[in-house]
Design goal:
Length: about 300
């Protein structure tokens, strides 16, 4: 009974200890202040990031909004993780927990994870710099190694490409050593048209230019009227005329098909007209021959 009374007295002494309650009150106030300051700092940094991304987006000629959104989200996540980590350490120190051993244990654990996940770390770092340097963006057509396609997703760890045949390639960012981006600047369509040797050079050039008249209206990807450079190569039976045209990014194939189709149509029309003229001349000769024989 006496032990129970002594234990009750000790509990009452703790409860009635004014200094303890003052310490708890001040600790609670400090914890609340730390939490509020952390939230304020995060909000301020978020606003700075948003304004900085908005200024950069307005100042660029060629803007990819997805890129700025992705970079902004990455910076916000990094800010949130850093501030919350510091807040947790301060809160632990407020409740008399030694953070030194925790930091040492976290350092050893992080080192072990780093050695075991070198590939993952490389993928993440490479993905961050791909986004930061705007090497390519969602919607661009790129080629890396043997893979070529349209960028569908850019992540911190992987990039997803969709080929023109519908195949989906998921590529770890750490394996991307070099990239060819077909969507960053205008392309140059180059078309070689073989011509029969019985056509003179002036006739061929005239026909080709006639077929290209107004092509920029038929195909909006063409920046300006194609240039007919002249003979590219020749043999005893034919010669090749080269045509070049500046076109929009990643539209070279469609522009080349447009030029080839238009030239083919004018050559077919010229061949039909020539054949019709020959048949008409032969018919006139026959009529004249028949008339002379009858006389």
């Amino acid at each position: 009974m006496s032990n129970a009374i002594r234990w009750t007295d000790k509990v009452w002494d703790k409860i009635s200890d004014a200094d303890m309650w003052l310490n708890i009150m001040f600790s609670s106030i400090r914890i609340l202040i730390i939490f509020i300051i952390t939230r304020i700092v995060i909000k301020v940094v978020y606003r700075i990031i948003d304004r900085s991304m908005a200024r950069k987006q307005e100042g660029k000629i060629r803007v990819n909004p997805r890129r700025f959104v992705t970079i902004g989200e990455l910076l916000k996540n990094a800010t949130s993780i850093t501030c919350n980590f510091i807040m947790i350490l301060l809160l632990l120190s407020e409740i008399d927990i030694q953070v030194g051993p925790l930091l040492a244990s976290a350092g050893v654990l992080g080192l072990a994870i780093g050695f075991g996940a070198q590939g993952l770390v490389k993928d993440v770092i490479t993905g961050f710099f791909i986004i930061l340097e705007d090497q390519f963006a969602v919607g661009d057509v790129i080629q890396t190694g043997s893979y070529k396609g349209t960028v569908e997703v850019i992540g911190l760890r992987t990039t997803k490409l969709v080929s023109w045949q519908g195949e989906v390639h998921i590529i770890p960012n750490g394996t991307i050593a070099s990239v060819t981006n077909y969507s960053m600047s205008n392309s140059l369509a180059v078309v070689d048209i073989p011509m029969k040797a019985d056509l003179t050079l002036d006739e061929s050039v005239h026909l080709v230019k006639q077929s290209l008249a107004g092509i920029e209206e038929r195909n909006l990807n063409i920046v300006k009227v194609p240039d007919v450079l002249g003979i590219q190569s020749m043999s005893t039976s034919e010669y090749v005329i080269r045509i070049v045209s500046e076109c929009m990014p990643n539209s070279r194939a469609s522009v080349e098909r447009q030029i080839q189709g238009d030239v083919k149509k004018i050559l077919e029309y010229h061949e039909r007209s020539k054949q019709a003229a020959l048949e008409q001349a032969a018919a006139l000769d026959n009529d004249e021959g028949d008339g002379a024989g009858g006389a």
